[in-house]
Amino acid sequence: MTDYFDELSAALRGSGVPEEQIAATVADLRGHVAETGTAPEAEFGPADRFAAQLGGLAPEPGEPDAAAEHWTWTADLFNDRRMLAVHGDQGWEVESLDALGRFVCRRSPGSALLWEYRREVLGGGRRKARVLDELSPEGWELCGEWLVYGYFKRPKAATAGPAGTLAEPPAAPGRWLFLSRRAKVLLAVWALGMAAAYVALGLPGLAVLCATGGLVSAVWTSQLETTKEKEKKEKEKEKEKEREKEKAARDDA
Fold first, then answer.
1. Inter-CA distances, 162 with 29, 41, 143, 205, 246, Å
2. Which segments within 147-243 are labelled E, that is strand?
3. Are strands 149-155 and 115-121 parallel, antiparallel or unpaired?
4. End-to-end distance of the chain based on CA atoms, in angstroms?
5. Tens of pLDDT, residues 72-105
6. The model's pTM
7. What region, left, alpha or beta, does residue 64 occupy, with left being phi > 0 and alpha being psi -120 to 50 degrees?
8. Is the pLDDT of residue 58 over 50?
9. Dmax over Cα atoms in the chain, in whole Å?
């Protein structure tokens, strides 16, 4: 295993990849094969070919990549995870979320890494720290926060090997807003409500109503996700108990 990663490091170094990036990449890949128990060559392919796919994809830390594509887009909470998956498979890496909650993305020219994303309810400080502790060992990196949500990214190359890259990325989408059908219906209802509120309350009252509605909506959806997460964990605990009972019965037999 050491020879494989030594060869990979040398090939990346020959491609001009910074030492910091090489060290981080090799550490992630070592951790992955340690978890899966597979041989690195079987998992990622020959070291020189894998290095050719990984090498030079990211800019040197602290320096912007002038050749990279940049694109900013947004989606509603019913549609954001689906669209993140779609755009991640097109090589778009989320760098941050701006003040309006839009995903600020970049993509390297030529061969690009594929990205996978997940959304978690962060809430207060304790929950945020717990979520980070749970996801960080799996390679997930916090790439943005919006209201009570945190968005995480992870390169697919760390788990999928050579299949985690895209040789010919498609053109950047010509649109920036991706709404689900549910959001479009709610938006139409909201527009009618805002018109009625403006007539009844005037502009100051309308501003207060908008702010309150947005906060209530975020809290409500986060509570739904938290409840689903608790139910999922309870089901996993029940399954684990069943497996333990079955194992104990087999041992007794």
1. 12, 11, 24, 55, 39
2. 149-155, 165-166, 177-178
3. antiparallel
4. 41
5. 999 988 899 999 999 999 999 999 998 888 999 9
6. 0.56
7. beta
8. no
9. 76
